[in-house]
Amino acid sequence: MSVVAKEIRCSHCNAPVEFKSGELITTCKYCGFTTVIQTGQAFNFDHSLILNNYDTARMENCVRAWMGSGFMKPGDLAKKSKIVENDLVYLPFWVVSTFVATKYKGIFERISPPVMKDGQIEKEYNWLVLARKATIFPAREYTVPIAGKIPYDFRKIEGFAKVLNSEISKDEALDMAKQQIENHHRFLLQQDLDRIIELSTTLDLKQMLYLHAPAWFTKYQYKGNLYQLIIDGSTGNVLKGDIPPIRF
After folding, report:
1. Cα distance between residue 211 and residue 237, in whole Å
2. Which of 44, 51, 126, 217 gives a 20 to 30 Å CA spacing to 197?
3. Which residues are 66's β-sheet partners?
4. Tens digits of residue pLDDT in 103-153
5. pLDDT tens digit string along 183-196?
6. How confident is the model at residue 3 (pLDDT cuts 50, 70, 90)?
């Protein structure tokens, strides 16, 4: 576990604000004021919050319902599993709203003679960048409910929840989004091209949002082994779930 590196004072309420090594943006748990750690100055972007809609009991019901659904799971999974951890974490994200154009040139070799193809992929995205460097989270499977965001309000966050600070700056998030989108477009092109000769991507940035969104990290035990689920705290949808193997 990381140790606390420093302590600064909130410039809004003067309460102590703790943060860990590597974190760039922190939020005061006493008043909700967001600060850039390097300068101690107020964060100059809107800070939003996605509300959590589940308590521990309702989340356990979601987990049990997931265990009892689908044919790829052991038939006794819901009955014989024991939930050993059920933690609510508010994760920091950058949402990059952008229009993207990727120009390409490549060769389709599945016919003879091969055919040269060129063109452009044009798409609009609300591309999600997790603002943590080591947290495992299936960002591509998560559609952040931007329409439901509210201004960040620390009073809406459960006392038992953990709130993580950002380790990624705005510029880093934008660079990461561009690289991830270009990789995604490369993957799309590989469905129709056997060789990509040229590829260039440009972003027309519309806006960037910084927000915290709730995720439940659940660990359960089944026949002596531990498995993990990650569940969207806003919708109750399972984003990632470890499934025990079926033994015959």
Report:
1. 19
2. 126
3. none
4. 999 999 988 899 999 999 999 999 999 999 877 788 888 888 888 999 999
5. 999 999 999 999 99
6. very low
**Using H for helix, E for strand and C for coil, what is the string for the chain?**
CCCEEEEEECCCCCCEEEEECCCCEEECCCCCCEEECCCCCECCCCEEECCCCCCHHHHHHHHHHHHCCCCCCCCCHHHHCEEEEEEEEEEEEEEEEEEEEEEEEEEECCCCCCEEEEEEEEEEEEEEEECCCCCCCCHHHCCCCHHHCEECCHHHCCCCCEECCECCCHHHHHHHHHHHHHHHHHHHHCCCCCEEEEEEEEEEEEEEEEEEEEEEEEEEEECCEEEEEEEECCCCCEEEECCCCCCC
